[in-house]
């Protein structure tokens, strides 16, 4: 029941964004994403559906997200599809060491507002809200011999993300928080800083900047 409500909310959010952008004078753009996870944590699905020790893996200041964002934006409102890969080679379970490394691959549909569209002529501050799915995997290498029986594979979590930051001239820097839930008590949690640099945009919305906060 809870999963159905989440899917319904995501669907409503998608159509709301598309409807909003359709009514605006907008343009296509692409951007390069590069950042640093300040904190991340993943919890693997439990075969029994019960929480147990040894299911989690996390790290502090070691994840590096790299990706691309493809958007359709007006000056201060935009919709974007973002895909990235976040590798954390030092992620581990501090309660029960099993091995090192974690990777996550988020796929997000985002609404960008203000400066985070990368096109705003009058805003220095902006925010974004996103929903999507993230694929996660822990214990990438160095698996301890006591846990050779573990067969780690990618598991999905439904994610939501909120971000706030600023930008100028096609470059943005923002703080983000992303949380995800999945089946059998699985979860994902990412906090960090990302930069977004415009790779391509046409010139139809260009005008003299008049920045405001």
Number of strands: 8
Given the helix and strand composition, which structural class is it? mainly beta
Quote the distance from N terminus to C terminus: 41 Å
Q: Report the CATH C-level class.
A: Mainly Beta
- Please give the CATH architecture: Beta Barrel
Largest sheet: 8 strands, antiparallel, barrel
Shape estimate: elongated
Oligomer description: single chain
How many domains? The number is: 1
Q: How would you describe what is shown here?
A:
This protein has 213 residues and is mainly beta. It has one domain: Porin (Beta Barrel), CATH 2.40.160.20. Helix content is 10%, strand content 56%. The protein contains 1 helix and 8 strands, in the order αββββββββ. The protein has one helix spanning 2-22, and strands at 27-43, 56-73, 77-88, 100-114, 125-141, 155-168, 171-181, 187-201. Strands 1-2-3-4-5-6-7-8 form an 8-stranded antiparallel β-barrel. A hairpin with a 3-residue loop joins strand 2 (56-73) and strand 3.
Short précis:
The protein is mainly beta and 213 residues long. 10% of the residues lie in helices and 56% in strands.
Keywords:
mainly beta, Porin, eight-stranded antiparallel beta barrel
Describe the protein's topology.
Elements lengths: L1 H21 L4 E17 L12 E18 L3 E12 L11 E15 L10 E17 L13 E14 L2 E11 L5 E15 L12
Antiparallel strand pairs: 1-2, 1-8, 2-3, 3-4, 4-5, 5-6, 6-7, 7-8
